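Hi everyone,

Forwarding the result from last night's run.
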Amino acid sequence: MKKLLVVLAVALMTSSAFAAKYGSAGCGLGSMIFEGDQTWWKQVLGATTNGTGFQTIAITLGTSNCDSPAPLKVTQAEAYIEANKVALTNDIARGNGETIVGLSKVYGCSNSNEFGRALKSNYSNIFVSYDASSTEITHNINSVASTTCNTQI
């Protein structure tokens, strides 16, 4: 009973400004079962259904209205760049290598050779300082990828 009251309180206090197509109950199976008008009781039942663990699974798998468009791609790119920073720096200086092939897949580039050439020609714009953070590097690579790979970032 306490869990239901907590879920109810959270559902009622959640701002509708943050609600997407699924309402304040959040994405997950509950948002699909109790879709339609956003009456309070549908939001409570949706949040309760999501609270049984279905929402976690939906977020993990990207199903049940829990899809994540471009922001996930940026996060994947930044994680890849952080994990491969030294090798990527060397490969970009050469214009080819395994890390560029992997990064081109993260960005959805169809031609890793063209992407590598574009990265090489923008090396000084990508690595603006010796201790540039992965976030800065990602931001700089995003601008190269958006023109070379026709990727929306």
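Confidence is low (pLDDT under 50) at residues 4-19.

Cheers,
N.
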